[in-house]
Amino acid sequence: MSEQRRTALVSVGAACALIALKLAAGIPSGSLGLVSEALHSGTDLVAALLTYFAIGVSGRPADAQHQYGHGKAEHLAALFEASVLALVSIGVAALAVARLAGWVHIAVEPRWYAFAAVAFVLLIDVSRTTVSWRTARRWGSAALLSNALHFGSDLAGSLAVLAGLVAARAGWSAGDSVAALFVAGLVLSAALRLMRRNVDVLMDRAPADAEAAARRAIATLEPPVSLRRLRIRSAAGHHFADVVIAVPPGAAVGQGHAAADRVEDAIERALPETDVVVHVEPGDEDAVTRERAQAAAMRIPRVREIHNISVLHVDGRTEVSLHLKLPGDLSLDEAHEVASEVEEAIEQALPAVDTVQTHLEPLAEEAQGRRAGAEVARDAEAVARFVRERTGAAPRELRFLQTDEGLVVFLTLGLDPAVPLAEAHSRASEVEERIRAELPAVADVIVHTEP
Predict the structure, then answer these.
(1) Calpha distance 8→10 (Å, rounded)
(2) Is-above-0.70 flag for pTM?
(3) Which superfamily does 286-363 belong to?
(4) What is the pLDDT of residues 374-392, one digit of tens each?
């Protein structure tokens, strides 16, 4: 017999003894507090019996009809126990109110044996609460935890009954009814908490702490894993995790399996006793298609820039469209030839693509195409002067490029190889700032330094 079932069986025996003891002391003394506690112990007996059998059922392995095991049997037992507790507490509260209102008259005679019975009950309540709590924590048992909370409320109720008996002995007979009312409220509160907790489990409410721990574990994996979905539910202290991750579409089966294994191991380390199922899906196919199309197009000579790459899926066909920027001095026939080469390269790199469409745009590379030769000469002379003033030598390379954003200056500076990197950067920055200040028409300056 398992430790959990032995603990539950001890609770059954304790509940039987307490019922007999409380009734034997409560009925002769007329103490409603003791009688209510006897009824409370009656629910303990029912709860302990349910827990005993539920633990036996929940411990069974999964089978064809119960593929996730039998762990929810504990939560069903705990939910039934909470319902019984609520009904009994309402009945006791109604009787206590009737006595306080004078509708029911029962004389209270707190004899010595009533106090002796309460002292013995307190001793048992303390011991069984401690044992059930420790065992529940060790095994993560919902049924044993509900028993521990129940026994804890018994302990508080027994203290209230003792206070009521002391008050009645002192001459305030209503003290016993007040104690009974307090016990009823205590039991009802505990019952509502138990019902909410176990309904959450039976309804597969995601345990927030467990889900956060699993997400943290996945987020720390190296190399990173793309998490698409994570679902967790719990039963009888056992977690079930359903995970969906994404891997690159071109990844081999072995790579996807290795990623799933890493996710499974990470979750099991963060949440021991977890049944993890990882589903692997391919990543964004369209994003990969765009990347491969751009790489194929950029390998074609005279292609200067590619943008607005789109992937469309129409009637089972895949189409790729993109904008090409080519040198502005090309003839239409030459530009069309380049576009045909780009389309062919993309179709070879991506056999799944059925159609490639290109939109041609000019890119004027030389400044002379838009600026008069005299203007370019003056700008070049000014830039060369700035460079000589700062570095003592002429620029190694100077080129102007007219783009849609404006005129761009490409400049290469030759510096002493022993010059620290910080100083080289400072000189390049000074030249750049001087060019921008003296040549407002310049949209951008790119300075390259070399030894």
Answers:
(1) 5
(2) no
(3) Cation efflux protein, cytoplasmic domain (3.30.70.1350)
(4) 666 777 888 888 888 777 7
